[in-house]
Write a structure and sequence with these properties.
Dodecamer. Interacts with BFSP2 and VIM. With 506 residues, the chain is α+β, with helices and mostly antiparallel strands. It is 36% helix and 20% strand.
């Protein structure tokens, strides 16, 4: 065991110049020499290079004492709650949780070796054509991939009996990160942001609809909206949901009835790094599972054919803990840094919309107020105007922040976060001048912004042509995402689209 510990220390010293893939390769060679261990107190040293703090910086790994302490805590939680199962969860391209559950007594072994899952579970195209998708360094689309747990995300699930979950990163069987993994892409963008001296402070705001159990009316299956009083939120369902989310680390700031029958809005407290996307990912599963305990069905899809909104509220902070969007003058305006960041979002809004409203139904919300048949709509922004694509809020204790309202509730939160960071960083790094406010005179600098395409086909084209996002998110991911969406459009049956969304996203 001492020889193994020396090797692991050498790995850590060399870590700055190595990718995670190379670290995993070294670990696999190391593990071949290690016998199977039967106590949680010693096995954690074996897994030192496979776990990271949940900060969004993929180059930081905890020390052996930190990991040993974390595993000791996990063991205590498992004993205290008499856990029987642990879910190893990973996000698919739609942001839906795909998991494998294992008996709790195998957790030690699976932490070391990972859990195998068919690649197609996460990438969703049955048989991609060779000329559509180039899987770099992948042996086969139908091959297995490995779920490796991030131990900092281990949580007991209050709504699932004697069950915990851990969020996983995905790798090929040869130890390389899965290049189509939304969580991996988000980590990479947050690492770029940190290299620039900034951190993202963000939170998601979701609308969702609650339906009663389906009823047969005139030979048709209909789900009626659940009744919700505008000023009474004492429903056991929403109380259990909010309390359960709190115990998984996802802190809900507020919840309320929204504009439609059975429609609710839930706002999370902002957090730094990847945590906001992890919280959103947790919520998307929790709301469905808790609702079914009360004979409800929840959906991010409205019965009228629109998708609910999914807003990313965010601000940029420096290493000294200062909000870089806040003006020192106390006036309602963005700083120069904030305006540059916003300019990046505006410039790439067409491509961003493809990732944030990734289906034809999601895009209806862009023109729901317009009676004119157009191919695109302008990208708008303003201060304290909830009708704009980018709403700048300067009031409240959170300080100045930008609400990215391009997103629908069906969008993958990791992709929303990653694409927002990539576009904002491009704005910071370009010298296009300072963005003028909408009410400012026309003599001030006002760069040309892309418009938001109303058709998904046009949005896909905008994403393919956006060199900044292609480079930031990766050629492999862009090619795969576009191929997946084209496949969906080709195979889509208009009459079945509503059912597809109701069944998949509930």
């Amino acid at each position: 065991m001492n020889d193994e510990g020396d090797r692991l220390k050498e790995d850590i010293r060399d870590e700055g110049d190595e990718t995670k893939a190379s670290r995993m390769s070294k670990l696999r060679n190391t593990r071949k020499e290690v016998t199977k261990l039967h106590s949680f107190s010693t096995e954690i040293e074996v897994d030192i290079a496979n776990s990271k703090d949940n900060t969004g910086n993929s180059t930081q790994i905890p020390t052996a004492p930190q990991l040993s302490s974390r595993m000791k805590h996990i063991k205590q939680e498992m004993d205290k709650n008499h856990l029987q199962f642990v879910r190893f969860e990973a996000t698919d391209l739609h942001g839906v949780s795909r998991s494998k559950s294992i008996p709790a007594h195998f957790f030690q072994e699976k932490v070391i070796h990972g859990v195998y899952m068919p690649r197609g579970y996460l990438e969703l195209i049955p048989n991609p054509k060779d000329n559509e998708v180039d899987h770099i360094r992948a042996t086969c689309f139908n091959s297995d991939i490995v779920l490796m747990p991030e131990l900092s995300t281990f949580r007991v699930l209050p709504w699932a009996e004697r069950t915990a979950r851990v969020i996983c990163d995905t790798f090929t069987v040869t130890g390389e990160p899965l290049l189509t993994s939304p969580r991996h892409i988000a980590k990479r963008q947050l690492s770029r942001l940190q290299d620039s001296g900034f951190s993202l402070f963000s939170a998601f705001i979701y609308d969702f609809c609650t339906f009663g159990v389906p009823e047969i009316i005139n030979s048709k299956t209909i789900s009626l909206p659940a009744s919700a009083l505008l000023n009474d939120h004492d429903q056991p369902f929403i109380q259990e949901l909010v309390d359960g989310l709190y115990h998984t680390g996802a802190n809900v700031e507020s919840f309320s009835s929204s504009t439609r029958p059975g429609q609710m809005e839930i706002c999370f407290l902002p957090e730094f790094g990847l945590s906001s996307a992890d919280n959103a990912f947790t919520f998307r599963t929790a709301v469905k599972e808790v609702a079914r305990k009360y004979n409800y069905i929840t959906s991010f899809f409205i019965e009228t054919g629109f998708c609910n909104s999914g807003i990313l509220s965010h601000s940029l902070w420096d290493v000294d803990g200062k909000n870089m969007f806040c003006s020192s003058s106390g006036t309602e305006q963005l700083t120069t840094t904030g305006k540059k960041w916003l300019a990046g979002l505006l410039k790439h809004s067409a491509a961003l919309s493809c990732l944030m409203a990734p289906a034809a139904s999601c895009r209806k919300r862009y023109f729901k107020e317009s009676k004119d048949l157009k191919e695109s709509v302008p990208t708008t922004w303003a201060y304290n105007d909830n009708s704009c694509a980018f709403n700048i809020k300067c009031h409240g204790e959170k300080g100045t922040r930008i609400e990215n309202k391009l997103g629908s509730a069906t969008a993958n939160p990791y992709l929303v976060l990653a694409a927002t960071v990539a576009a904002g960083l491009d704005g910071l790094q370009r010298n296009d001048g300072v963005l003028a406010a909408p009410e400012d005179g026309t003599d001030l600098h006002q760069p040309k912004f892309s418009e938001i395409p109303l058709k998904l086909e046009d949005a896909l084209m905008a994403l393919e042509e956006d060199q900044c996002l292609r480079q930031a998110l990766g050629e492999t991911f862009i090619r795969y995402f576009v191929a997946m969406k084209k496949y969906e459009l080709e195979s889509e049956e208009t009459d079945a689209e509503r059912n597809k969304f109701l069944e998949y996203f509930i």
